[in-house]
């Protein structure tokens, strides 16, 4: 679907730490109804940590498009999964946040505002 770089206050809020800058690529799934986001940090440099931080190397996060972010967060809270920092708005296109899911996996929840 496309490539871009991300940074700024909205990205800091969504990801959960300050000053991040990353390259992203969106790949559309067969059938065209979903996509996979590939994410590479430019800053800060990727590091190994326990628990895994948002900029750690490896497969540790997944993103989901949701119809209602509040409903998704209510469901996540039932499993003790809460936003890392808060809910961000990206260019009046998405409301999004990251939660730490089971096994430490970071889960991005994004609601389209279109």
Automatic annotation (TrEMBL):
The record places domain Glyoxalase/fosfomycin resistance/dioxygenase at: 20-109
InterPro entries in alphabetical order = Glyas_Bleomycin-R_OHBP_Dase, Glyas_Fos-R_dOase_dom
The protein depicted here goes by the name: Glyoxylase I family protein
The record's annotation in Pfam families points to:
Glyoxalase
């Amino acid at each position: 679907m496309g490539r871009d770089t991300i940074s700024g206050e909205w990205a800091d809020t969504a990801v959960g730490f300050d000053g991040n800058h990353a390259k992203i690529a969106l790949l559309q799934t067969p059938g065209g109804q979903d996509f996979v986001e590939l994410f590479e940090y430019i800053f800060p440099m990727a590091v190994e940590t326990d628990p895994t931080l948002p900029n750690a190397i490896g497969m540790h996060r997944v993103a989901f498009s949701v119809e209602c972010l509040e409903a998704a967060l209510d469901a996540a809270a039932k499993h003790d999964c809460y936003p890392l920092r808060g809910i961000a708005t990206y260019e009046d296109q998405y409301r999004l946040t990251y939660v730490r899911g089971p096994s430490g996996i970071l889960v991005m929840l994004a609601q389209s505002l279109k």
